[in-house]
Amino acid sequence: MTDFIHRFEPATNAGSPPLLLLHGTGGDENDLLGLGKMISPGSALLSPRGRVLEHGMPRFFRRLAEGVFDEDDLRRRALELGAFVADARKQYGVAAPVAVGFSNGANIAAALLLLKPDVLAGAILLRAMVPLSDPPKANLAGKPVLLLSGQADPIVPASNSAKLAALLSEAGARVDHKVLPAGHQLSQADLTLARNWIGNVDAKAA
Ligand code: MLT
For residue 25, how far is its CA from the centre of ligand 1 (angstroms)? Predict the structure, then answer.
């Protein structure tokens, strides 16, 4: 199996979609397990640790500065993550997951949607930004995406998250973009909105 340190927790409710949990910079495979359980109780949880280290902090791809990505590395790492998900699906017998990504994890989830649309059944992107300056023409027909941005996010300008929403919509995704009275960190509203969205979304239709 493609080599990612990860945690897997099997589903306790077959009706809940599997989640691919993608942590932020400096996080690890344990970080978002609690969040996953809160927003979708009973889902299978697949939670890899990013393979890039920035001053000892795990990330999913390299960056040149805050918000300035090494796009060659990002493309390569997104494909690597896609291969890991494919292998894990076989090993653990799970359906295509809905990604739940925060910050750096949301950015690689957005890249994965654009580069390998079939890997994910949908995505919850928490504080994501446009990952690629020249993305390929992706076909995301009907894929459900919840994008939650922070009005006062010092890392992701409002224009950037609006551009990401437009990019995904133009590729055919069913994008629900909400801007919350928050910064880069998550708030209670993120949890509530994510839980309600995943409860209503039909990821199998994607
Ligand atoms: C990134 O590098 O993906 C973004 O700047 C978010 C972060 O991890 O701080």
Answer: 6
Contact (CB, 8 A) for 99 and 109:
yes
> pLDDT 10s per residue in the chain (206 long)?
668 999 999 999 999 999 999 999 999 999 999 999 999 999 999 999 999 999 999 999 999 998 899 999 999 999 999 999 999 999 999 999 999 999 999 999 999 999 999 999 999 999 999 999 999 999 999 999 999 999 999 999 999 999 999 999 999 999 999 999 999 999 999 999 999 999 988 655 44
C-alpha 169 – ligand 1 centre gap (Å): 22
Tokens representing 86?
């494919």
Which residue has the CA at smallest separation from atom 5 of ligand 1? 67
- Report the catalytic residues: 103, 153, 184
Please tell me the residue having the least CA distance from ligand 1 atom 3.
Answer: 104
Distances (CA, A) of 66 to 43, 45, 55, 63, 86: 33, 29, 14, 7, 30
Range of the domain at 113: 6-205
Query: Ligand 1: distance of its center to the CA of 107 in Å?
Result: 7
Q: How far apart are CA 59 and CA 150, in angstroms?
A: 21
pTM: 0.97
Instruction: Tell which atom from ligand 1 comes closest to the C-alpha of 25.
Output: 8
Q: Are 56 and 160 in contact (CB under 8 A)?
A: no
CATH of residue 175's domain is 3.40.50.1820
Number of folded domains that form the chain: 1
